[in-house]
Amino acid sequence: MTASSGESEPTEAAGTEAQATAAEATGSETTGSEATDAAAEGGHGWGRIAVRIFMLLLGGLSLYLLAPKLMSVFTSWPELKTLKPGWWALAFGFEIMSYVSLWAMQRVALHTTSWFAVGTSQLASGAVGSIVPGGAATAGAVAYKMLTRAGIRASDVGSGLAASAIASTAAVSALPVLALPGIIGGAAAPDGLLQALYIGVAAFVAVAVLAAAAFGWDRPLVITGRAVRWVIRRFRHDAAADLPEHLIAQRDRMKETFGRRWQVAVSGAVGKVGFDYLALVCSLAAVGVRPNPSLVLLAYVGSALLAQIPITPGGLGFVEAGLTGLLAAAGVNGQDALVATLAYRLVSFWIPLPAGGVAYLLFQHRYGAASDESATSVTVP
């Protein structure tokens, strides 16, 4: 999931990749000047291969440099037996709810009623994105092929994946601002995890309210755009001149994609991130630590953003190194931070990988081999 969960949800770039794949799937013939254009574009194939080779090398170098921290996390495996099983089971349950929230949002964005098609395609494509370095585009292509085979229009797939990725990223990005009051006020204490739960729930409710306001009125977006533009212009005087208008235009495209059920989509985006955060809180509770609650929220946001780094599969190494450090800053001692990180990554990254393989086999069993027939839409009544 965005979020530091390992679903590697296709990003906006992946949505663009899916739209490009949709164009290829139309099977239109290239003749005359079109053939010339195609030949010219073929020259860029070596460039794409070079970029992929570079990303593989960069990913390998990153994993080499991050190997000591990864080994520290993995060698904490024996200490998982000290976890409180009830809390870790609850973390697993919250992670499942995070995925279900994502699927609910994607059902709206893709204009389909099929939980099976959305769930299996997301798990399978997410597993691919968590294995391949820079795999967001590949995950988007896999999701496109599976969803169109399930009968969803290609145009809906491209716009739907992009809109759901933007909504999830926006939900994560809003959290640091909402956590600042607690940090400034020094909200830490003996009941740190309970406070982390309260602060997290309050923050996600606030995100949902702000998102609903942004979908309903232009004013919140105008104010936000002007504030961000003011900050950017402290560094570049000629930058972000049309940022408020750009935010409104992007919001309008998302409203068009989500349609009349945008409230469900917004709830799904917030739920996806919120339940994933609760999985981290429960992983900490399973270890038995009491960290600074506001900093736990920031640690979660940091790990979610690190998971989006396209250098290693699913942010592998970056998330482990970043999350253990951020948890240490939140008041968790070094060894407990390693065990909590391992417990959280198990439910959010490692367990979904084999689940993605099973999902792909189930999808193949139901829909069989890809057909050449044009995909039709399965629309929400």
Helix content: over 70%
Give the SSE string: HHHHHHHHHHHHHHH
**Biggest sheet, open or closed, and with what strands and sense?**
none
Strand residues, percent: under 5%
Unreliable runs:
1-7, 10-43, 184-191, 372-381
How many domain regions? 1
The outline comes out as globular
Alpha carbon gap, first and last residue: 28 Å
Helix/strand/pairing category: mainly alpha
**Structure summary, number of beta strands:** 0
Radius of gyration over all CA atoms, rounded = 21 Å
**Overall mean confidence score, pLDDT:** 73
Number of helices: 15
How would you sum up this structure, described in words?
The chain is an all-alpha fold and 381 residues long. The chain is built from 15 helices and no strands. The chain has helices at 12-25, 33-42, 45-74, 85-109, 115-129, 136-149, 154-184, 192-216, 219-232, 243-258, 262-287, 293-306, 318-329, 334-350, 352-367. The longest helix is centred in the middle third of the chain and has 31 residues, at 154-184. It is globular, with a radius of gyration of 21 Å. The two termini are 28 Å apart.
